[in-house]
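dumping this here before i forget
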Amino acid sequence: DAVVLLGASSTDGDSDSLSGSEYLEWRYGQVAGHPTIDLDVEVRLQKCLLRLVGSGAITSAHDCSDGGLAVALAEACIHGNMGFQGEVDVTGRWDVSLFGETPSRVVVSLPMDRLEDLKDAATDENVPYVRLGFVTGRGRFFLPGLMDLSVSTMADRYNRDLESTVCE
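structure:
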């Protein structure tokens, strides 16, 4: 499957996307900023997603709201027990690109032969998109120049930290 980010024209994050983010609180101990949402953009994104789901084009979808793009990709790998091979260069600040929580963004996976369906739906609804990479069965999470982790290690850490949080 191909992996595509709907609702963004690139992985070049705007520093405002860190407003109110998990990353900002974790890394800098701040809960600051004023996240905003453009309801017109959100409506167009949801129409696009409904069309893709209705046609059976997409295999999976995951929003980027809690933790940003990197967390959405990691959670999809963990829950699907699959790997991810990134094909896109992160431009600008990597922390903003990967952990910014800009609204109205969804990571989808779909068979390669359905990419034209996604392109048509996104064009018709005026929803920007960027291809991020592809799903692998290798069990690795790979972003060129930034991350190369085993999905099992990520899953262990994710589940352990979740359990320790819930059990405290």
